[in-house]
Design goal:
- The chain is built from seven helices and four strands; from the N terminus they run βαβαββααααα.
- By secondary structure, the chain is α+β, with helices and mostly antiparallel strands.
- The protein folds into two domains: 2-78 and 197-203, Glutaredoxin (3-Layer(aba) Sandwich); 85-189, Glutathione S-transferase Yfyf (Class Pi), Chain A, domain 2, CATH 1.20.1050.10.
- A four-stranded mixed beta sheet has the order 2-1-3-4, with helices on one face.
- Helix 1 (11-23) runs antiparallel to helix 6 (156-165), helix 4 (85-114) packs parallel to helix 6 and helix 5 crosses helix 7.
- The longest helix has 30 residues, at 85-114.
- It is globular and about 45 Å long.
Length: 212
């Protein structure tokens, strides 16, 4: 059986848990206390040298880090990843978009707001807010003409971007300003076996610490 090394409040871990639920795939979970140093131990660094979660341990004992890579691996041969070359490339394009832009703006702001670490007056915060608005505008533009990011079908591109983009209001954005994005979040939530279990940072007494 596969094992997911996970930190509950991480939406990167949520991406993987959502797909596993929708695939009806059995797996074990190993929690990693990232703010208590567990992801910086030699044992964990042997699984992911960057010390980040999630990491998927496969049946053969090999390890696959990076949430979007895990999504692509798990979705191979399923309805969540098309075998049409262009649709597949568009799916990956939006996953790369999520990793580059959503993570560095909305995801970062959300984490720092919800854990009390945000310096609202800093130039870095202002830049993240500007980038986040550009991200939502790009999503709005795409979703104004298609139900899902890679076309007519729900895919891992939607799972990837929904994890943080769908929670942009936690980062201080108003999704009423992005009606196509807001409608898309409702479509994602209406998918079969949708996993509605966002875990708050309050479950972790150490979440106000900075990562080492």
């Amino acid at each position: 059986m596969i094992t997911l090394y996970n930190y509950g409040p991480s939406q990167n871990g949520y991406k993987v848990r959502l797909l596993l639920a929708q695939l009806d795939r059995e797996y074990r979970t190993q929690d990693v206390a990232i703010f208590d140093g567990e992801s910086r131990t030699p044992a964990f660094l042997s699984k992911n040298p960057m010390g980040a979660v999630p990491v998927l341990e496969l049946e053969d004992g090999s390890y696959l880090p990076e949430s979007n890579a895990i999504l692509a691996y798990l979705a191979e041969g399923t309805e969540f990843l098309s075998d049409d070359p262009l649709v597949r490339a568009q799916t990956l394009r939006w996953m790369f978009f999520e990793q580059e832009y959503v993570q560095s703006s909305i995801a970062s702001l959300r984490h720092r707001m919800l854990t009390g670490k945000l310096d609202a007056a800093s130039p870095a915060t202002a830049e993240k807010r500007k980038l986040g608005a550009r991200v939502l505008a790009a999503l709005e533009g795409q979703l104004g003409s298609t139900d899902f990011l890679a076309g007519r079908r729900y895919s891992i591109a939607d799972i990837s971007n929904f994890a943080y983009g769908g929670l942009a209001e936690d980062a201080g954005y108003d999704l009423a300003d992005y009606p196509a994005v807001k409608a898309w979040t409702r479509r994602v939530r209406s998918q079969p076996k949708f996993l509605d279990d966002i875990i708050p940072y309050s479950v972790d007494p150490h979440s106000q610490r900075e990562l080492g």
